[in-house]
Known about the structure:
7 strands
Amino acid sequence: MLIIGIAGGTGSGKSTVAESLQKELDSTNVALISQDSYYADLANLPFEERAKRNYDHPDAFENGLLIEHLDQIRSGKTIEVPVYDFSQHARTSEKISVTPHPVIVVEGILILAEPALRKSFDIKVYVDTDADTRVIRRITRDIEERGRTLDSVCRQYLNTVKPMHEAFIEPSKRYADIIIPVGGYNTVALSLLVSRIESYLKSIQISA
């Protein structure tokens, strides 16, 4: 099994890269996992307090559970991935079953910032996109998909997203094996990554 970690700032195109890999290599070969699913469950706190939390700090995630799940799926076990409700800042009661695949792609803003989590990845990728593009994508996504207001998105960006990016996410780029500029639109970088994974898939077919 090949486990690939794809990091990068908010709105950088991590999901686009991950989904492109799955499309190019087929969903029978590639399963996707998002670090967003592993935000710590704060359902026991009042909504107002949950809304004030810093969700761009490494401590916002239950990385221990993610590491445990990656160890389990690498050993051939099916995992139950939490479902997170961004409008409520809490997990739902639902879970998504992810079965072992030849390739597991994990994407998230801070997956390369945590030493223990980095050890889980066979290939580490960083998607590098300029700040203006990222913030515009963030505003659009949070309003359209996560039920946020423009004011709340802008305040969150200035108060936590930007400083946490500079403190934790951008520095994690040095741990990447591959850096993809211009997000998911860098077809050359994507094709090189696809070729690397295809070589791996062929090798396990031969050995089987």
